[in-house]
Amino acid sequence: MTQFREKPILLFDGVCNLCNRWVNYVIDRDPAAHITFGPLQSDSARALLEEHKLSSEKMDSVVLIDQGKVYQKSDAILRLAGYLKGPVRLMRAGWLVPRTLRDLLYDLIARKRYRWFGRRDACRLPEPGIKDRFLEMNTPSESGSRENT
Predict the structure, then answer these.
(1) What gap in Å lies between CA 52 and CA 140, rounded to an integer?
(2) Rounded Cα–Cα distance for residues 63 and 45 (Å)
(3) Beta carbons within 10 angstroms of residue 132's beta carbon
């Protein structure tokens, strides 16, 4: 996992359809492969969260770890936009909106994401061409340590 320390790491809900669509969107707009990914349900993600003193038990936010700093919710999305190509970079103007307002909208979508977009029974497995952009994929259901959330 140390080879990923130099790159921003996006931790996402691996069973959330919206989150998986967002990961696909990011992959398509990150041709230089700056971003590494990992489902929150994986052992690697839990270890990273613990390292940064975050609980993996009630995680309902994307997390971006970039240059040793942790970004969550709207901060993670806005920071991530800076790495991407195309009009999505305009999202960086969102920094002008107070975090409390941005995170209110983020929290609303996070609470309703399964109802609006659905969920998978298991974490997404990356396609062979992008597998090297994902942290190790030992999820709790594979290792038997706990069920996917």
Answers:
(1) 20
(2) 10
(3) 10
pLDDT tens digits for range 71-117: 999 999 999 999 999 888 888 888 899 999 999 999 999 999 989 99
pTM of structure: 0.82
The type of residue at 43 is D
Span 15-39, pLDDT tens digits: 889 999 999 999 999 988 999 999 9
Give the bridge partners for 66, in sequence order: 69
Contacts of 1-4 with C-beta under 8 Å, sequence gap 24+, read 1/44, 1/47, 1/48, 1/135, 1/136, 4/36, 4/135
User: For residues 37 and 134, is the Cβ–Cβ distance under 8 A?
Assistant: yes
Structural domain boundaries of the chain?
Answer: 2-143
